[in-house]
C-alpha cells in the first residue's frame, strides 16, 4: 500500500490484483445463466475473466498485466465494435458487477465505491457507443485509460 504521505491506487486499496481476479471470476461464472447477458457472452473465451481483471487492475493503477501481455485500449474497444449493446444489457452488467463487488470482498467504503461506479458508468457507456454501427476505433497506440479517486476530466467528445 502507499506510504502514509501518499494516496494508494485503487488496486492497492482493493487488496491487489488478486481482488480483481476474484471479482471477475465470480462475475463471469454467473453471466452464462443470466437471461440478459448470457447471449452477449455466449462462446466466451475461458480466459475472459482473467483478461478483464488484468485490464481493470491496470486501469486502476495496478501493474501492466494487460498491456504487458499484448493487450491495448484499442483492442478492448475493437472487441465491442459491431456488437450492438443495449442500455438494458449495459445496466444489467453494472448491476451484476456491483452485487459481485460485495461477494468478492472488495472495499465498501464510499470513496472506493464511488470511484468504481464512476468507472463502470464511463466504461460501459463507451462500450455501448463503440458497439454501434459506424463507430470508429481509436488509433493504434491510443493510451490505456487511467482511473483514480477523482473524476476523469472533461466531457467525452467522441
Automatic annotation (TrEMBL):
SUPFAM superfamilies (alphabetical): Globin-like
Keywords annotated in UniProt: Heme, Iron, Metal-binding, Transport
Highest taxon listed in the record's lineage: Bacteria
Chain positions covered by the region annotation Disordered: 137-158
InterPro entries: Globin-like_sf (IPR009050), Globin/Proto (IPR012292), Hemoglobin_trunc (IPR001486)
Pfam families: Bac_globin
Binding-site residues for heme, renumbered to this chain: 51
Residues annotated as transmembrane: none
GO molecular function: heme binding; metal ion binding; oxygen binding
The name this protein goes by in its record: Hemoglobin
